[in-house]
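Protein of interest.
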Amino acid sequence: MTKATIICIIDDDDIYQYTVTRSIKSSNLAKKILVFSDGEEALDFFMDNIANEDHLPDVVFLDVNMPIMDGWQFLEEYVKLKPKVGKKITIYMVTSSVDPVDLERAEKIQEISDYLVKPIETGKINDLISSLNH
């Protein structure tokens, strides 16, 4: 991946959305940040833009627990869409859950690059995004 320019946050927590967005903007790590409050909104966006990879994110920070469509349900649908996606999308599962069952489940899904437990330090998010730019 050359430069992670579009970052997507899928999380129902307004405060988390705000702090991560602010952190990414202040570090100048993205030209665009997409924010969705549940997996269904994000999935609709992905399906609407499947033919235009320039609109799809390079990195996704995906919450586990959300209303309407949670992170697991989003991933199930994304796996079906993935063959039609013309670019590599790095997905980080983000959660406040320290349940070993969730961690084990995440490890079995190859589309998940890492499992991050909230709260995530600003520097960690910046490091993850920066490492994808090299």
The domain at 6-94+108-119 is CATH 3.40.50.2300 (Rossmann fold).
